[in-house]
Amino acid sequence: MKEYLLLTRALSKNNGMDMPESGKKAKSYKLMGTLAMFCIMIPCCFIVGFIVYIMTQALMEAGGGTEGLELILQLLSVFGIIFSIMVIFNVLYFSSDLEHLLPLPVKPSVLVAAKFTHAYFAESVMEFMILFCGFIGYFIAAGLKPVSLLTAIFGIFLLPVLPLVYCGIFCLIIMACFHKAKLLKNVDFMVGLVSVLFIGLFLLSFAQLDSISINTYIDSLTNGKNIFIEMMSKVFFTVPVFLKALGGNSFLYFLLFLFENAVAIAVLLLLGNALYLKGVFLVSSNSKGKGKRVQFERTSYDVKTPLKAYLIKECKTLYRTPAYRKYCVVVNVVWPVLVAALFLLPATKNFLEAFKTVFTKGFVLSDVMVLVAVIILSFFATALNSIAATSFTREGAHFSFVKYVPFDYKKQVQVKALVSMIYSGITVVVSVVLLCIFMKCTFFSSLYYIAIALMAVILCTWIGIMLDATHPRLDWEDEYGALRGNLNAFFNMAIAILIAMVLCVIGWVLFRYTSFDSKLIFIIYFIMMALACFIIGRASMRHTIISIEKDLYS
Predict the structure, then answer these.
(1) At 473, phi and psi to the nearest 5?
(2) Chain segment 51-69, per-residue pLDDT in tens
(3) Do residues 17 and 123 touch, judged by C-beta distance below 8 A?
């Protein structure tokens, strides 16, 4: 036990991102942290708590109780697997601390336990907050009971365990059974396939409905015909037991919930003791010979200009690195799929068809709503892929490449911004085009929406570049570490949400307190976005170059 605690404490020091403790940078990051708290974390937790409250209240009237909370818990479990699987892989097998930990006289199960605990706390902080607020919403609707309260307290910390245990068991078995390291390239594909399966089941639960409303979805939950809940309750078996303890105030089910989590952890540690070292040694033995493959790939480059070479380097880094490919590139597919799903699924199709009828009549409010929706989608898509907000962080220990390569700083920054604009711009344009097709927008309206969307991408990109240049996270062990816990991406999302909120308020004010028609409002937005891109772009370029030069001569 002592060895486990010491190892866990040592590994926990690698969590998160070191922040400046004094000076202007410290003040600015405290301000950004406060902004992120009020723009992302608190609203997210409040929304979850409110949804659980509304659904629980409605379900109790319909003869149910915990089904609304179950939906939230199962979704959190699914996302826990999707976003943690590759993190667990890297923590267990590809972290640089292994060469120091393996010679220690400790059992493999202790190493697995310490690394699992490290990953558990690193990945679950936000989930703790969401669960806490979800339980508050449930208790406000259902009332507070002693055992239910005790169950909720333990549930905050134990519900995230099973998804991570699944990730750990999967990693141990895969690494011990694969005899060629190159097969590990298929792991990312398998994770993507499982993610599509889970998301497909969730969307299928909506596709079963005739119309989108809380009543129809509640009916599908209470009558036990929700395919997503049916499947997930078997996969994440601790959730139904937890809900029986919570909803029934049952101490027996509470103990069973604790027992199930203990068994899951015990299975992980037993497999870790039997398989972990085999997988670690397999990775070590197959890591030889990589230099030849890299050298062979490098000989295939044929680039005539530094600008083109730098651009290709940035694009290939994003595409070829599994972590960046998954969280920076592939994540962009979500938005076109989401737009198409909203217009094709029966649950949302009817509502949007009614809105389309109003939109085609040219009412100012409907025009402004579509315009604001395009801006929000563009900001969120750009901030979510975090390409701009990790531009310099991705250099890591090779940040000196940026400083000493014989290539002008300004052009380097322009290339980094361009890469974000290319990846974000493609997904945003495709999403907006789909939106315009489904909404039957005119050709000139579609061009306007695309122009506004691209300006939102440019604006969000320059903000992310400036944030990351100010304080990049250069000390990371693997590419997942460059993304996980990177506060610059978190702050960029917070600013994107804030700007989107401001633009929504401006649109509402223009509609409510002026007699402007749609064309005049569109012109006002175009001028605002263009000026913002120009001002923020120049400020970001200047600030970024200053940050690089300060680091160079410090």
Answers:
(1) -90, 95
(2) 888 888 877 776 667 877 8
(3) no
